Amino acid sequence: MIKKIIYTILAVIGLSFGLTLGPLIWQLFQIDGGLLYNPIVNAVIFMIIFILLGLLIAPLVEKVIKKMFDILAQQTTYDLVMGTIGVFIGLLIGYMVSLPFSNFNIPVLSATLPFILMFVFAIVGYQTVMSRKHEWKDAFARFQKPVEAEVEVESQMLERKADDTFHRYKLLDTSVIIDGRIADIVKTNFLEGILVIPNFVLHELQLIADSGDSLKRSKGRRGLDILNELQKDDSVNIEYYEGDFEDINEVDSKLVRLAKLIDAAILTNDYNLNKVCEFQNIPVFNINELANAVKPAMIPGDEMTVTIIKTGTERKQGVAYLDDGTMIVVEDGQYYMNQRVPVIVTSAIQTNAGRMIFAKLSQAQIEQSEASI
Fold first, then answer.
1. What whole-number distance in Å separates Cα of residue 214 and Cα of residue 323?
2. Nearest Cα to 285, choosing from 301, 262, 264, 302?
3. Can you say whether the dihedral through the CA atoms of 256, 258, 262, 266 is positive or negative?
């Protein structure tokens, strides 16, 4: 379509050129010929010449036009309006400056210099307006109502705060996909932004799903099922990154590189990747840390009922677990193996592996045991 437009424009220019300047060109080269001085013949000859010239320059012109379209598509409406105003002001100033030169009656200078001046001033006007577009925006904002100005300032403050803490893209690594809890977290709407699945993470997940180890194979297939579940959910904003970093072999290193390129945060359960991200100042969301944070707080004196399933490392200790996997170490609990007993919390500590709660048997359980003896 663009080439057809270029050929049409060149054909019209050739016709106009042949009708007006064709005979003068033949006279300039002292070429005698009756038909060559015919305006219609000149129009046809120069139209053909310009069309043939278009075959050579059309591809270049088409590339330039497409590049201009791409640049314009990336500009905001405000930038386009301000840029147009700057060009118009520059053309107006250039036209006024060129008026004295057009009256000199110098063949080349009078015809060419005005166009050059208008072109130069148009560029200067565009650059001047665009370099100070934010100042113009602030100046226009002063004429708005005070209430609107306060709303604008408030919105700018909110946007500034969001820029400091909010990351639009969240990169998912293999561990957090296989874990599966990410699907439930996303459905709660506590996780904002766009989930990004890099192609190299998907490839690693596929290799795990095709593994000869049955345990790895089941984990990989569960991860693929989780991705399919997220993709089918219309409320989840998920995208795929098709690129790769061929100079890097490790998937974790690729994730770190991609996070830096697109200013993204990383969602992971990998302890080592978590530490690498912290060292390189990359925001990281650890699902295990989130799970520990939302566990109900246990303080000394709280009562609960647990089932002791094994002995502890210390003498007479018994070990039980809550539904969320929290370990309960019960004093003198080894005497109640595979029994459900009431206990009282004595203390709790937080470790890298999770939370650990220490407890003792309740007084009622002790009295019942003594009575049975």
1. 26
2. 264
3. negative
Place of tokens 């000149």: 42
For residue 138 the two structure tokens come to 């602030």
What are the residue ranges of helices labelled H in 103-189?
Answer: 107-131, 133-141, 146-165, 174-179, 181-187
Amino acid, single-letter form, for residue 32 = D
The answer to whether the beta carbons of residues 268 and 285 sit under 8 Å apart is yes
Q: Is the pTM of this model over 0.70?
A: no
HEC readout, 266-299:
EEECCHHHHHHHHHCCCCEEEHHHHHHHCCCCCC
Contact 276, 252 (CB under 8 A): yes
CB 204 within 8 A of CB 253: no
DSSP state of 301: T
Question: What tens digit of pLDDT does each residue of 255-275 get?
Answer: 888 888 888 888 888 888 888
The kind and range of the H/E element at 344 are strand 340-351
The mean per-residue pLDDT over the stretch 228-238 comes to 83
273 contacts 252 by C-beta, under 8 angstroms: yes
- Between CA 202 and CA 1 the distance in angstroms is 40
- Report the alpha-carbon distance of residue 272 to residue 256 in Å, rounded: 12
What's the pLDDT at 238? 85
Q: Specify the amino acid at residue 297.
A: A
| CA-to-CA separations, 233 to 168, 186, 187, 199, 202, in angstroms, rounded | 19, 10, 9, 20, 18
Calculated CA dihedral for residues 134, 138, 144, 147, nearest 10 degrees = 110
Phi-psi bin for 341: left (phi > 0), alpha (psi -120 to 50), beta? beta
Token pair in block for residue 303: 């009562």
Name the nearest CA neighbour of 170 among 197, 189, 188.
197
Please give the Cα distance from 125 to 81 (Å, whole number).
13
In this structure, what token pair is assigned to residue 345? 């919390």
**Residue 139 clears pLDDT 50, i.e. is over it:** yes
